[in-house]
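Suppose a colleague, Dr. K., hands you the sequence of a protein chain of 102 amino acids and asks what its three-dimensional shape might be. Before reaching for any lab equipment, you can write down a predicted structure in C-alpha cell form. Begin with the sequence itself:
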Amino acid sequence: MITKYKLFIRPACDECMKIVEFMQSQKIKGDIIDVTDAEGEKAFKGMLCLAGEQGFKVNENSDGTYTFPICFFFDYNDIEKIAYTTEDAKRVLENKSLFDIV
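The predicted structure, expressed as C-alpha cells, is then:
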C-alpha cells in the first residue's frame, strides 16, 4: 500500500512541474525535493543508496547522470514503485487504489 512519496525535481523542467502539480492534488503525503541545491542533491544520493539496498535500479543516462523528475513511492519505509513521468505516477496511484479495493 502506498503511504507516502519523495519527488525529486529540477525547477526549470516542464515535466517536473507537471508531476508536482499532480502529486499535490493527490491525497497522499510526500516531499518535493529540488536537486539543484546541495541539500537536495545529498538527499537524492541517499535515496539512490536506499533504492539499491532495496533492490531497485534507478534509470541512469549513459553518461551517469539522471533525468528528472523521479518519484519514489513508499509503503512506510520501503520503496514500492518508482515513477519518471506524471503518467507513471498516475498508473502507480491507480493500481494502489485498485489494490486497496480488492
